[in-house]
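ESCALATION

Customer reports they have been waiting on this structure for their group meeting. Please prioritize. Original submission:
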Amino acid sequence: MRPTDSLAEPSLEEIAREWGRIGCIGFGGPPAHIALFRELCVTRREWLTDDQFERAIAATNILPGPASTQLAIYCAWRLRGPRGAVIGGLGFILPGLVLILALSVLFLAGSPPTWIRGAGMGAGAAVAAVAVRAGLGVAVPIWRRTTDARRPRILLYALAAGIAAASTGPWLVLVLLGCGAIELMRERRLAVGGVGFHAWPLLATIAEPGGTAALVWTSLKVGALAFGGGFVIVPLMQSDAVGTYHWMTHGQFLNAVALGQVTPGPLTQTVAVVGYAAGGFPSALLAAFVAFLPSFSFILFGAARFERLLVNERVTAFLAGAAPAAAGAIIGSAIPLAGALSETWQYVVLAAAAIALLVLRRSIVLTLLVAGTAGAVAGLLGAPISR
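Update from on-call: job pushed to the front of the queue and completed.
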């Protein structure tokens, strides 16, 4: 049952229209999505109070997976219950998903034009700098609110996950879970059996079943085990998509991440590009379904308990270890992302993107678009372009 203390109640048609509108214009990642939903639900329509919206942000930030997607689903759930949650969530997700699949066909085609390949290589060259920017965006607030006594431990979690992301990708999910479990045991002084840590991630990682099962596992990691911000899905996907199952080349994966950044909606939809590379449109839709299913499930089956989740000591203790590990993983992923570049001119683009993002603090979307344009121009001028 949904809450009944909202200030007003929109129709399902309004939710479909407004959430779909944000899905179409939601460029810029979670900060932009939060601002758009605040403007809609709190400021303009007064469907929710400031306090209700702030608590919605706090609750969805605790959950694994794409926080802005869960915020979209949760706000719709508060207003119109389960039907509103499904309609609002799909309205937010589908515009960007349709666009990124259309671009996947263009960029992953067997013989795309030279300027298209150059644009992909240019935008892909900037992705490593985006990873560092995203990782620091998660790490700096964690570091600032951590006490001096806990900072060495936090640094170790981040370092362990960063090394895992840079070198042993398939095991990264275990490092993230392990850091959370260690912090939970330390804070609560629980026995290992009381942590609630299950062996299924280990079994699924070791089994590497291939085919549909492999794609489902990769997508599930993206949707259900990504702590600490959307960009942590990149190292979770990269080792499977490129190294283990060879669904994509390094260059194609860089293109996929870039497409996820320059299209509206959540970065999680990048998994659809991986699915398309693995098996065409059916696999793309399967990957997207599996990746977003946990977000809908968390809200539809657990939203009524979110108030208790906010004060649950076990949850906060686990995230105290998993979140800094996720930040380290995002930054560590920049190493294989940069190592995947194949041409000298791409390193020039990467250096320029690093200055733009880390020094001048320019927009990620704008930086990727400029990098893609530079790559397209380079290709037309005869710069070496990989096939």
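Sent to customer with the following note: The chain has two domains: 12-97, 131-339.
Escalation resolved.
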